[in-house]
């Protein structure tokens, strides 16, 4: 199942999207979907990193200690 979505984007971005769609012979919607999937994945990863950074129960180790633990 899919859902239609209408968005407004700047003319220069729309032009670049049209060019890429033409070059790849894929619809613009394909590229928008892939870009959104990538963005949402990155956003989720960023949230995990942010949460871990602010987790006081998560120990912080030095790079030297990490190398020793990994036997590098």
Explain this structure.
By secondary structure, the protein is mostly helical. It has 3 helices and no strands. It has helices at 11-24, 28-53, 63-70. Helix 1 packs across helix 2 (28-53).
Map the helices and strands.
Layout: H1 11-24, H2 28-53, H3 63-70
Strand content: under 5%
Order of helices and strands: HHH
Question: What is the count of helical runs?
Answer: 3
Q: Measure the end-to-end span.
A: 49 Å
Throw out a few tags for this protein.
single chain; 72 residues; mainly alpha; 3 helices; 0% strand; elongated
What is this structure, in a nutshell?
This protein is 67% helix and 0% strand. With 72 residues, the protein is mostly helical.
């Amino acid at each position: 199942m899919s859902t239609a979505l209408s968005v407004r984007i700047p003319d220069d971005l729309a032009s670049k999207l049209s060019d890429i769609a033409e070059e790849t012979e894929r619809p613009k919607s394909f590229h928008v979907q892939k870009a959104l999937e990538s963005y949402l994945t990155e956003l989720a990863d960023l949230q995990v990193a942010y949460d871990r950074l602010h987790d006081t129960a998560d120990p912080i180790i030095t790079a030297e200690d990490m190398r020793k633990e990994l036997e590098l």
